[in-house]
Specification:
Layout lengths: L2 H20 L15 E4 L2 E4 L4 E7 L2 E6 L5 H10 L6 E3 L4 E4 L5 H38 L5 H34 L2
Antiparallel strand pairs: 1-2, 3-4, 4-6, 5-6
Length: about 180
């Protein structure tokens, strides 16, 4: 059981939480809003970003220019079916998404969603801690390490857990500020 492996796993949990936060709307156009959109391309669910060039020409518009024009209607359909609640405009060349300003009610919903994602990240970190501590206890039981080493390792694991949980809390605070800023 190596502390470096535990830390790497916890870092990945924080990064996954950050990516999840990026999919939450903040009232400004952001290409990462479309990260979860999957397009049915030749009967295969394909991420939108691998079928099109996604740009943000201004703060309230996302432009999606497909590499293959025949996918325009499929992209439009995928966006309509997604949980984004955005209406795509197709001009035959580019699909445009106008990002409306958020109402205070929607902002509260997004803050709640961000809190849920943060809690999922914290749970993930606690699961990593539990697995690591179980591994240390097993090593101690099998007489591979001493009782003192076991206690020290468990303390180090807890310190890592606190550090990465704090990082998620900081990411959440930043995201909440981002969402609530008009």
């Amino acid at each position: 059981m190596k502390l470096a492996d535990v830390e790497t796993s916890m870092q990945k949990a924080v990064e996954a939480t950050q990516r999840a936060f990026n999919t939450i709307r903040t009232g400004r156009a952001n290409a990462s809003l479309l990260d979860r959109v999957m397009v049915d391309y030749y009967d295969t669910p394909t991420p939108l970003k691998s079928l099109a060039n996604i740009t943000t020409p201004d703060a309230s518009t996302i432009a999606i220019q497909p590499y293959d024009k025949s996918t325009l209607s499929k992209i439009e359909k995928a966006i309509n079916l997604s949980d984004l609640n955005l209406t795509p405009n197709n001009n035959g060349e580019v699909v445009r998404l106008n990002i409306p300003p958020l109402t205070s009610e929607r902002r509260k919903e997004f803050v709640k969603m961000a809190s849920q994602l943060a809690e999922e990240g914290r749970v993930s970190i606690r699961n990593i801690r539990r697995d690591a501590v179980d591994s240390v206890r097993k090593e101690e039981k099998n007489k591979e390490i001493s009782e003192d080493e076991s206690r020290d390792l468990q303390e180090d694991i807890q310190k890592l857990t606190n550090k990465y949980t704090k990082k998620i809390d900081e990411l959440l605070a930043a995201k909440e500020k981002d969402i609530t800023t008009v």
